[in-house]
Each structure stands twice: as structure tokens, then as C-alpha cells.
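Our consortium's second objective concerns turning raw sequence data into structural hypotheses that experimental partners can test. To show how far this objective has progressed, the report includes one record in full. It was chosen at random from the queue rather than selected for favorable results. The single chain below, 315 residues long, was entered without modification.
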Amino acid sequence: MGFIIIESDGKRVFRYFLVWLKKELTVMKKIAIIKEIIILTLATAMISASVFFFLMPSHASVSSIAGLAIVLANFVPLSVSAITLIINVFLLILGFITCGPEFGYKTVYTAMLMPVIIGVFEKAFPDFTSFTGDATLDVVCYIFFVSIGISILFNRNASSGGIDIIAKILNKYLRIDLGKAMSIAGLCVAASSLLAYDTKTLILSILGTYFNGVIIDHFIFDQKLKRRVCIVSPFEKEIREFILNELHSGATIYKAIGAYRMQAHNEIITIVDKSEYQKLMAFVDKVDPNAFVTVYKVSEMQYMSKSLPERIFEN
């Protein structure tokens, strides 16, 4: 009887623990979602402020749908925020049709939020002209601040919509690198400035688009590049164990024959991110400073996530 009572109490305690754990996980999930929304909102607000306070006064069309809206506002009786909203809605629909729901709720949220914030600025500061009084400085400030905002969004697996959607469509169907696709779309927007402004604004738009692309490539896309590291060393076992146990990454071993002495060696090949690459090279320099190492940049990969069950190939 006593055993039954203890067992019953144990089940009850375990049940209470599961209920408590479920509540805690729900709270943690809600906190994580709220934190994510706050970060996305702040980044979008930074981009929107950059558009209103720097891009709009310069009249330049720098690599964004807002830049195109600045030009179109000269021909249609709508504000920049309203035109941006209309174009973003159209591009989101087009993106879902052509690329499927890969954009996610984050891009939809930020793409809708940005023109709303720009509209708030338009109402709050109806007579705003420029902080700097110089179109070139305005474009430089815009590139600086908008790059920070866009990098935050990209690091949260989101984007501000617009040009990013066009770039993803070009990337999927024409296999153009995402950075190049954004540059192509951005240059088309920059060229549209000639429809409403002089050649000085056109040149400023093109140069601004170019440097904006360079900064985005460096601070966003280059950070996501992985490296394919090929190592030939007599300390193969130590390096392989470091990759597997310390970096928790995979590796492939090939048989390689040196042309000079025709001796067979094992070549370890692994693909790592930036931080893993630094750790790996530090370890290689420590155990074998004379190791033969070649490194290649990898811009795109298709593979099974480490979190999924291991895929076993049958011979």
C-alpha cells in the first residue's frame, strides 16, 4: 500500500513539473517573440528615419523602393510613404507567388511597418528640408545608417522588403548572386531619378547605390560566407578530432598523392564559418605550423542540418 501511495505521489509531482515546465516554456517563447519584434521594429525605424531625414531631402534614388517612390511622387498625387506601401504590397504578393512563403512573417512585418513610420515622420515634420543642407552628405549619412538597420534585419533572417524581394526572385530564377541581384535592381532604381531630376542627382544616385552595395556586401553577405579549408598534415588525427569534437563540424578525407615524391597523403576538407575558421587555423598553427592549407570561399551550400538525424549512405 505504501509503495502505491509513493508511486501515486511521484506521478503527481511529475505531472505538476510538466505543467510548470510547459508554462515556463510558453513564457520564454512569448518573451523571445516580444524581443524579436522590438529588435525588428527598432531596425525598421532606423531605416525609415534614414529615408525621411537623409534620402528624401537629397532626392537621390539609392537602391531602395523608397528611392523609387521619391521619383514617382513627382508624377502621382501620393506621398512617398503611400507609394512605398503600395509597391511593397505588390512585391510581397509577387514574391509569394514566385518564391513561395520563404519570406516569412518578419519580412511582411517590416515591409508594412516601414512606410507607416515614414508616414508618421511626414505628418510630424511636414516642412523638413535637410539636416546637412548638402545632398552628397545626406546620401553618405543615409548609406551609413541604413546599412546598420539592414544588417540587423538580415541577421534576424528578415529584410525590409522591396529591393530584397526583387533580388531574391532574380537569385532563384536567374541564379544571380544575391549581392549582384540587389545591385542590378538598385541601379535600375537609381536610373529612374533621371525622370524627375537632373544629371547630378542621377550620378549621386548611381554612386550612392554602388557604395551602398559595397557596404552591404562587406558587412552582411561576407559575414555569412563560409570557408572550405583543405589541410594536408602528418597531424591528421589531431586536426580531425579537433574539427569533430571542438568545432562540432563535419569533414571529408580524400587520398592525395604529391606529384614531387609520389607519396600518398590524407587531405582533410571541412567547411566552416568565420569564427570556426579562426579557431581551426589557430589550432593548425599550434600543432603543425608547416601544414599545407588552402582556403576557398563558399557562397552557397545545400545540406542537411546537424540538428536532424544523421543521413547514412548505403553501399
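The partners drew two points from this record. DSSP finds ten helices and four strands in the chain. Confidence is low (pLDDT under 50) at residues 1-7. Both points have been shared with the crystallography group to help prioritize constructs.
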